[in-house]
Predict the structure.
Amino acid sequence: MEIRYHSTRSNTETITASQAILKGLADDGGLFVPTEIPRFDFDIADLPSMTYQETAYEVMKLFLTDFTEDELKYCINSAYDKKFDTELIAPLVEKDGAHYLELFHGKTIAFKDMALSILPYLMTTSAKKNGVKNEIVILTATSGDTGKAALAGFADVEGTSIIVFYPKDGVSPIQKKQMVTEPGKNTFVVGINGNFDDAQTGVKNIFADKELAKKLDENGYQFSSANSINIGRLVPQAVYYVYAYGQLVKNGTIKSGDKINVVVPTGNFGNILAAYYAKNMGLPIEKLVCASNENKVLFDFFDNGTYDRKREFILTSSPSMDILISSNLERLIYRITGDDTAKTAEFMKNLSEKGEYTITADMKEKLVDFAGGYATEEQTAGEIAKVYADTGYVLDPHTAVASYVRRSVLSDDPLPAVVASTASPYKFTRSVMQAIDGAKYESMEDFELVDELCKLSKVEIPYAVESIRTAPILHKTICEKDEMRDVVINRLIKS
Ligand SMILES: *Cc1c(COP(=O)(O)O)cnc(C)c1O
């Protein structure tokens, strides 16, 4: 069955998967969605014997129907290889009653690697399939982890270049160092005086700028997006939920066909949306638990049906979840309107013009699969300390938010819970060590803390951290949020 894609805001025009991957965002500002969510065409009883790569092929081929078997297998095998420090790619670790799905074994030790390792291959294959001659310019706004993962994925990939905008004071020191030391010749990293939403809005405006697109085309460039709105990021993320399910059967936690719960630390709503797609494909998931930090706009949405971004933006110890406009939620809104693009467009118009929208009672009823929860900064730190004290396992702050929410929301739920573990604690060393012993680690430098974490967790220091200890800073550009367009033009077209 062929799956095509159209905007969440209009369905008059449909395009192929490869075209949707190349475009990133639809012309009307909407997100690409499949004409329908495909159902598994394999038996889930076979999952326990499948490798990560085999699972990826079975899941992704259902969405990317214009890719040949050879093309898709080439993309999968190029992405999920020795770049990951374990053959399992996404291992499942049981601690303290939870099943932590470790999504941080890739190049930049955060879950963004799961999709951004494969996106460059999907993108260059899509370009070839569609006869694209322009250089593809990846334009990305990052709250920290996407930036480095996208840089690592696209660095020195022929036919592409990448520009990353990050909030100058809104990422962890290690995240920042990872980005500004990026050596790829086709990479450009820019800090902005603003927060993540400013960066994301700026990038969206640049994408929507038709005049700029024309100018770039004349100079041999075209934009694409590596942000989590790209369907080429969403689809690979459904894979690890399917794989985790197989692992739970394999290790005897469940029998094939039994239900599980999933808890996801959420920011832009990409990761949990992928779990929702997996459920709709036929994976036996009971509850999808959306875990937020103090920027709990999604918790309130699931609680009362109103999405209201008009609130103070709080910088927390889980910066990749410091988001007030969760872009991928638009794809869920589209689903719960009953695939109604006009209604979706109206909600999104309200969001941009009034800063809020309220869904109907009918729509709210379709959210029964979801539960929301959140953790304050204190609860997050407490969770890191508790899990470490009880088990010796060290959580990063994002995972700790989800772990706390599992405890509070699913406390009497007998089903096994998979907690998406989205970053290595080494990426957020200061917050993690402060949570474990504030007084002892207060005055230490970042890399001293890395060494202390190694002693305490007995987990080897990842290469991603070790390698930036002494790396030179190569990217120093800082701009105002209204200068982003000019920065892009200056970089690409030196007029
Ligand atoms: C991006 C990110 C998240 C949030 O994921 P979304 O798909 O944006 O909801 C959570 N934790 C970490 C470590 C991340 O990098």
Observations:
- The mean pLDDT is 95.
- Residues 110-112, 145, 228, 265-271, 320-321, 398, 422-423 surround pyridoxal-5'-phosphate (CB under 6 Å).
